Amino acid sequence: MIWPGMRLLSGVKLSALVALAVPALVALTAITTLADSSPSPSPSASGATALPGDPARGATLYGPNCAACHGAALTGGIGPALNPIEKLPGVANALDPNFLIDIITNGRIHQAGDPRTTDMPKKGGNSNLTDQDVKDLAYYIIEQNSIKGGAPLPPGELAKRTILWVSIGIAAMIFVTFLLAQYNMRWIARRAAARRK
Prior knowledge:
By secondary structure, the protein is an all-alpha fold. It has helices spanning 4-8, 11-37, 55-70, 97-106, 131-146, 155-196. The chain starts with a helix and ends with a helix.
């Protein structure tokens, strides 16, 4: 079936439309995907005071003290993801230095609406952590959330984006196939008409 509007378009105009429409659709989707995945601004950029801590030291402390629950790449596991940091109910800014220091120091009892059902022990279960160690860990978490690109995507988010891109590719291929079939049918009809003459 040929749509009435398609008869008005010549093969060149139709090709130009396809050449512009498909890349535009892909570009718009890429822009929205990148906008959705951009990390939240760092707390120091939003007016909070700088946290006195050493992120490099925090990185070395994170592995043995936090990675078992929060994942080696801060993407979560038993405990919530720390990069990008999961939003907690009743917490305006989970990257607030004072909030992070308090949570690391005193732990957190599971609350209704929390994404995980386990409690966080004080100092991650290591009572030997000093106040400076806690500050270093907090600053490391804040710094990791402010790095462009951040941590690798969690499996669920990666699956969503893969499905989105595959769906866009399939839709574009179906659209191009439809247009080519329409062009082919017109070409075959013209050849048949030329043979009858």
